[in-house]
Fold this protein.
Amino acid sequence: GAVVSQHPSWVICKSGTSVKIECRSLDFQATTMFWYRQFPKQSLMLMATSNEGSKATYEQGVEKDKFLINHASLTLSTLTVTSAHPEDSSFYICSTGTSGRSGYEQYFGPGTRLTVT
Amino acid sequence: DAKTTQPTSMDCAEGRAANLPCNHSTISGNEYVYWYRQIHSQGPQYIIHGLKNNETNEMASLIITEDRKSSTLILPHATLRDTAVYYCIVLRYGTASKLTFGTGTRLQVTL
């Protein structure tokens, strides 16, 4: 299957600072990437859809000014958590999809665990 | 996209087949059934998907009922490494399709 990487795999930051998370599609071009957030013992919640060369589409309830998404190339999307607070501590996961012989498949990165102190 | 219902948790002995059910009674004709799993603290892993025919790959088999209102994911010989949360998702086929995750089934494989 396709490979999606994320960097960093974990990060600890102080309250009020900003953190950037990178998502890379390693072996195919991704015009669309998705960003999810997962709190402990909960399911994944879609935050936004990142489109290469255009503005991201945010899900209801997700603050676009707090979670800045940039998708400047076909292989890289970044999520910046601005002015992070402890309640932003979560597991952030990106994904992207591709259509192959067996149809559409979506692949996920390994996730980035953010802890805000 | 149609809603899915899965049992909250299941246990399976190592070496036995794990059969994970999913109900998707409101599925539409152009919606596929996808299965993903998430091992603790990792990103979800694609397992298999299908439309109406049964499907098999190196990881699992997917059995979809004739009316397509339910399906079963089968792990033929479960191992401890198959312990994970398994998500059944119904998705309209196409590129750039966002996945909506439910609560999934927590499968515990035991010795």
